[in-house]
Amino acid sequence: MSTPFYVSPQQAMADRAEYARKGIARGRSLVVLQYADGIVFVGENPSRALHKFSEIYDRIGFAAAGKYNEYENLRIGGVRYADLRGYTYDRGDVTARGLANVYAQTLGTIFSSVGEKPYEVELVVAEVGETPEQDQIYRLPHDGSIVDEHGSVAVGGNAEQISGYLDQRHRDGMTLAEALKLAVQALSRDTNGSEREIPAERLEVAVLDRTRPQKRKFKRIEGRALVRLLEAGSADAEPTSGGDVE
Question: What subcellular locations does the record give (predicted)?
Fold first, then answer.
């Protein structure tokens, strides 16, 4: 009778974590930034049908990097949780912190389970408040931990390099055009330090806009509206002497 191969619990968890991190790193990066009027989500996504960003509830947005089928299951579960809680109690009882706790429990259970592989996903749950100080951004890695972020956050791909770039350049009170330009600049940087151009049609952009009069603050920005914002951001960064730019 052969002796069963023994792996220490510490080594088993380290292997699972490395497996999940490698899977997440193969995906394209995305960034979430605060700006003066809300929170903007920006990512490179050539697909027009498979979204990285989605609305969860009135003031809550969802972003994910990694395997699409896995984070789509989590997104659907989050929508169901939010709808049920809002219907059972009150719409104000649905919060990003509560949703992040639910996701953390799910991811943590899957990560520690021996019977199935860990999810190759990293999530961001954001809620826009009445003021910038009330905005909430939570990052949830594959192991179910919760990281309370402020200002900016990057996940997927070369997230560590992008986060360092954003930390040095992001500031409070940026306009949407300025925040969008910064996000695209960060995403355009390759791991070797060179830059590449990301055309507007390959960008997925959404915002939680606190100035919208309706309860639902999430909206997508695409097409000509996105192009105009990108041009406005470039004009703000490099003013010319040819007059004002609308």
Answer: Cytoplasm
**pLDDT band for position 155 (cuts 50, 70, 90):** very high
Round to whole Å and give the CA distance between 208 and 124.
13
The DSSP output letter for 199 is -
Q: What is the pLDDT of residues 66-88, one digit of tens each?
A: 999 999 999 999 999 999 999 99
Q: What is the Cα 149 distance to its own chain's centre?
A: 11
Count the neighbouring beta carbons within 10 Å of the beta carbon of residue 71. 22
Residues 6+ apart with CB under 8 A from 24: 65, 66, 120, 121, 122, 142, 155, 156
Find out whether 50 and 217 touch, Cβ atoms under 8 Å. Answer: no
Q: Is the pLDDT of residue 240 over 70?
A: no
- Answer whether 146's CB lies under 8 Å from 100's CB: yes
For residue 246, CA distances in Å to 97, 160, 232, 235 come to: 39, 35, 8, 10
Whether pLDDT at 24 is above 50: yes
Question: Where is 44: in which H helix or E strand?
Answer: strand 38-44
R_g (Cα) of the chain, nearest Å: 19
CA 85 – CA 73 distance, rounded (Å): 18
Crossing angle of helices 176-187 and 159-169, rounded to 10°: 140
Which three-class secondary structure state does DSSP give residue 153?
strand
How far apart CA 176 and CA 178 sit, in angstroms, is: 5
pLDDT digits (tens, 9 = 90+) for 96-116: 999 999 999 999 999 998 778
Geometric angle at alpha carbon 72, from 205 and 76, rounded to 5°? 105
